[in-house]
Design brief:
The complex is a heterodimer of chains A (about 110) and B (about 375).
Chain A lengths: L5 E9 L11 E7 L1 E2 L11 E2 L2 H11 L9 E2 L2 E2 L3 E5 L2 E2 L15 E6 L5
Parallel strand pairs in A: 1-9
Antiparallel strand pairs in A: 1-2, 3-4, 5-6, 7-8, 7-9
Chain B lengths: L34 E3 L2 E3 L1 H19 L9 E5 L4 H15 L12 E8 L6 H13 L4 E7 L13 H10 L4 H22 L4 E3 L4 H13 L11 E4 L2 E4 L7 H10 L21 H15 L1 H12 L28 H10 L9 H8 L24
Parallel strand pairs in B: 3-4, 3-6, 4-5, 6-8
Antiparallel strand pairs in B: 1-2, 7-8
Helix pairs in contact in B: 1-7, 2-7, 6-8, 6-9, 8-9
The chains are: A mainly beta (about 110), B alpha/beta (about 375).
Family (chain A): Belongs to the URM1 family.
Organism (chain A): Serendipita vermifera MAFF 305830
Keywords (chain A): Cytoplasm, Isopeptide bond, tRNA processing, Ubl conjugation pathway
Amino acid sequence: MASDETINVKIEFGGGAELLFGNIRSHNIALPSKAPATANKAKQEGRPADITFLIDWMKENMLKEREELFIEGETVRPGILVLINDVDWELEGEGDYVIQAKDEIVFISTLHGG
Amino acid sequence: MASCEIGGNEEALMPKRRKIRSRSCIKCKGEKGHLLVRGLVYCKTCLQALVVQNFKKSINECITPATSSSTVLAVGYSGGLGSTLLLHLVAQSLVSNSQRTRRHRWDEVHVIHVHDPSIPGDEDTLAKIESAVAAYPSFHLTLVPLDQSFAGGGYEGSPASSLHTFRSNMPTQTATTDGTRLLTRRLLERTSKSLGATHLLLGRSMSSLSMSLLSSVCLGRGFTIADERQSSSGGVISFNPLKDLGSKECAAYAWWNNIQVISSQITRPSLTGTSGEIQELTRAFITGLEKDYPSTVSTIVKTCAKVVAKGDSESECRLCSRRMQTQGERASSPAMIAITARKTQLPVQDLCYACETMLTSANSKSAVDTLPPLFPVWALVDDD
């Protein structure tokens, strides 16, 4: 349930990425609405939750195995397509996109190509 | 004294410059864009139309009235993104009665899946493969075990044990992967021929194809690099209808059309359990390149399409069944000559440079102690 301190977000996985998250394709999460500072201090504490924070939160709370297949540094590794409400995250500011309530964010792996 | 240091010990990094783009679709100009593809913005509708258009264009380029003499079409299917999308496009664009044209008429579509029973979880994967193909009632599924490469070869033990020996005797991890892919390709071609097909569709996208092309060059297969795009073996023409589509647009199309990829591959360890093979390193390189410089991947494929091997050879390698340079144009390594003379059933002149290197890896520390290679059945007999 959402509160002033959390945002309801729907996360989905495709292309095999779900295997890293307990083989569950769809997750409804309550994401903290404020993000801590990033490890390299590039982003400050208390900022509104953005995709960068979401990825870090997923790593800490959802990722079951093989972290290196999903994350590289503070972003997703190359080969992971991210859609925010059906739109390419590159058109929405990538990690800087500020997450809104009821956003649907999809992570699709393209690593098994053939 | 003047110093050239920049900011002391801090690492100087250029901040990533965000390009300001129009959010409107480049094709229809009106709709809001959904996907950025190599610098161009497409809406969902136009992107999907682009995928279908590129697919049909590739089909028409490679399957001409002159080359189409069979009513059987073969489609290679691994369960991955490209081949899964390929099945969907074939069903939607080539087989559907409403879409059939006079140019392409197939009474049968055979989906061929080469699987490896020795890999844990193979049975589960097969069940998913069968379920996926069952969604296309007019398609016929043919399952081919990888160890069929050694069935009927007169080897002691089962084909599975022969496959294990084949891999174990490979001198390097790269050679093991290269050998496995070679067996898979040959089984697809041979099975297509046995089914009566004249064309074999493969699901490699532009991204996958660029990985194959660069890997081929690194592995010594540059002489036949053109065969990675399109090849002919035993009367079967193999090609990649998705060659003009990157993995990004393929993935988006699959997601928007609810096309499920068989997901057992992503966490499957490589056959050798490491990531040190040339193929994996190339994949990591191309994937990174595609993220930061997406047009470069397209350039790799287009440039390799212009490469023409010097000379015209009619000789075929016994192992990979591709053209090979004459012995006068290359010199076999002393290690290979010694090993072949001492242990193998094939004379060195029947193997191309790349296969010779794969079996001996002359630069490997273990070259002197390389175990005798085991050859698949097609290398032992003339049956093409």
